[in-house]
Amino acid sequence: MKTGPGAWFVQTGCFVCHSISVFKVRSRRKSGRTSRRRLRTSSRASGATLDDFIREPTGTMAVVLSRQIILTPEQKQVAVAKLREAFAEHQRQKAAGTAQPRRPLTIELAR
Which residue range forms the structural domain that includes residue 47? Predict the structure, then answer.
């Protein structure tokens, strides 16, 4: 997990709570608890955009991103790009019929 397209999620510590199955990154968390947040990739629909959420997170992520995983504005831009890469790969695998069985996602990008 320390190399390849999912390495960023491991290096930042995101994988402690979040699995990124499209990149074969497995969370160390075994609690079975998950939360689902739908984030938009554009501002046309209702709800928070991915950019807005990373810039001003709410709930547990507000605590995590202010005390445990502190990202500069530039690193937050990288986070958005990496999440979009993961979603694009999920879409590609889904279209090719090679997507892994659906597991609960902590952050799900929706159109």
Answer: 35-110
What is the pTM (predicted TM-score) of this model? 0.73
What is residue 38's three-state secondary structure?
Answer: strand
Residue 104 inside a domain? The answer is yes
- Which residues contact residue 22 at a Cβ distance below 8 angstroms, ignoring those fewer than 6 apart? 6, 86, 89, 90, 93, 99, 100
Domain count across the chain: 1
Whether residue 88 lies inside any domain: the answer is yes
* β-pair type (37-40, 107-110): parallel
Q: Is residue 15 part of a domain?
A: no
Non-local (6+) Cβ contacts of 39 within 8 A are: 47, 48, 49, 50, 53, 107, 108, 109, 110
Q: Cα–Cα distance between 73 and 38 in angstroms, integer? A: 22
Is 11 part of a structural domain of the chain? no
**1, 24 contact by CB (below 8 A):** yes
Is 54 within 8 Å of 79 (Cβ atoms)?
A: yes
User: 20-33: per-residue pLDDT in tens?
Assistant: 888 989 887 764 44
